[in-house]
Amino acid sequence: VQLVESGGGLVQPGGSLRLSCAASGFTFSSYAMSWYRQAPGKERELVARISGGGSITNYASSVKGRFTISRDNARNTVYLQMNSLKPEDTAVYLCNTRRATIDYWGQGTQVTVSS
Q1: CA dihedral 21, 93, 104, 65 (to 10 degrees)
Q2: Which residue from 44, 21, 33, 50 is spatially nearest to 91, judged by alpha carbons?
Q3: 19 with 9: CB under 8 angstroms?
Q4: Can you tell me the distance from the alpha carbon of 65 to that of 82, in angstroms, rounded to the nearest whole number?
Q5: What is the layout of strands, in order, in the sheet containing 2-6?
Q6: Model pLDDT for residues 19-39, shown as the tens digit of each residue
Q7: Cα 38-115-46 angle, rounded to 5 deg
Q8: pLDDT per residue as tens, the chain (115 positions)
């Protein structure tokens, strides 16, 4: 299993970013995918999750209405569209999938929201 995130960067408050996570090594469409984030000194938190078929999504209350998770099963890629970004969204964003009891993680991509 390999997960590779991209799309992070520096953005001003109120701006937007789109993160991508390219997956390989497993049957992508059969598994839910998640985005987590971890800020310095804070615990890792679940941001959003999407079912294998893409019809079911869940969001942390802190991002609901601002972030959208989606997936393209033909491209084995999951996305996180982030709008109306706030300084408190600054974190390393990580892609995740779970097979049986094993969690797989990407290397993460840094998102910094600052003026």
Answers
A1: -80
A2: 44
A3: no
A4: 10
A5: 2-6, 17-24, 77-82, 67-72
A6: 999 999 999 999 999 999 999
A7: 20
A8: 999 999 999 999 999 999 999 999 999 999 999 999 999 999 999 999 999 999 999 999 999 999 999 999 999 999 999 999 999 999 999 999 998 899 999 999 999 999 9
Q: Which residue has the tokens 């987590």?
A: 36
62 within 8 A of 4, measured Cβ to Cβ: no
| Interior/surface letters 89-98, b for 16+ CB within 10 angstroms, e for the rest | bbbbbbbbbe
| Polymer length in residues for the chain | 115
* Tokens coding 67: 């972030």
